[in-house]
């Protein structure tokens, strides 16, 4: 495409999208003739596009001949909401990476397992080498310990029955009493417990259906500056909490 030239557009796609928009503006449904008048399309063209949209599940034709939005659109809407939520959370994580010069992790405890759902790093701030699956190393990572601290003692005991703590480095804590009795904390630290040369900090994320944490990893040589990380990490965790809370309220209203 030459500079300044107009993009090539597919007219039939534009017409179909316009029909979807108009149908969406009529909760009770709208007829083909009304759609043709509203969009300025010829009636035969309108019928042809409507048949295609119904066949693909984007529209549904009612018994009285009116058209309403189909299930496929609902699926797209849900996917769009999830992607927008992920984008907002990643923006917070990216800002934190740039502010702290550290790799950023978002993890949750789902169905009895630790799951790292998002990592924002860069060549300058590489992620930790996951040489042991995080699901098996919750006792040795700030991510895992922060998530487990949000559970009951019984749930923590169940987790360690399934994943007995093992020594990963000389600094790994493996005492069950200490791990099970761990109180909830606004900030959790891992100093070379998972990987020699690496330190991690994790803060809980509130207003989530299951335990969620936001964490950072960095070379242990920077541990002396940990105090500089605490406030930005907590602030970012609070921001992610607000994003999730707003998303949850919007979902409840729908």
Automatic annotation (TrEMBL):
The keyword Disulfide bond does not apply. SUPFAM superfamilies: GAF domain-like (SSF55781), Winged helix' DNA-binding domain (SSF46785). Keywords: DNA-binding, Transcription, Transcription regulation. It comes from the Bacteria. Residues 10-71 form the HTH iclR-type domain. The keyword Transcription regulation applies. GO terms for molecular function: DNA binding; DNA-binding transcription factor activity. GO terms for biological process: negative regulation of DNA-templated transcription. Residues 72-246 form the IclR-ED domain. PROSITE patterns: HTH_ICLR, ICLR_ED. InterPro entries: GAF-like_dom_sf, HTH_MetabolicPath_Reg, Tscrpt_reg_IclR_C, Tscrpt_reg_IclR_N, WH-like_DNA-bd_sf, WH_DNA-bd_sf. Gene3D superfamilies: 3.30.450.40, Winged helix-like DNA-binding domain superfamily/Winged helix DNA-binding domain. Pfam families: HTH_IclR (PF09339), IclR_C (PF01614). This is IclR family transcriptional regulator.
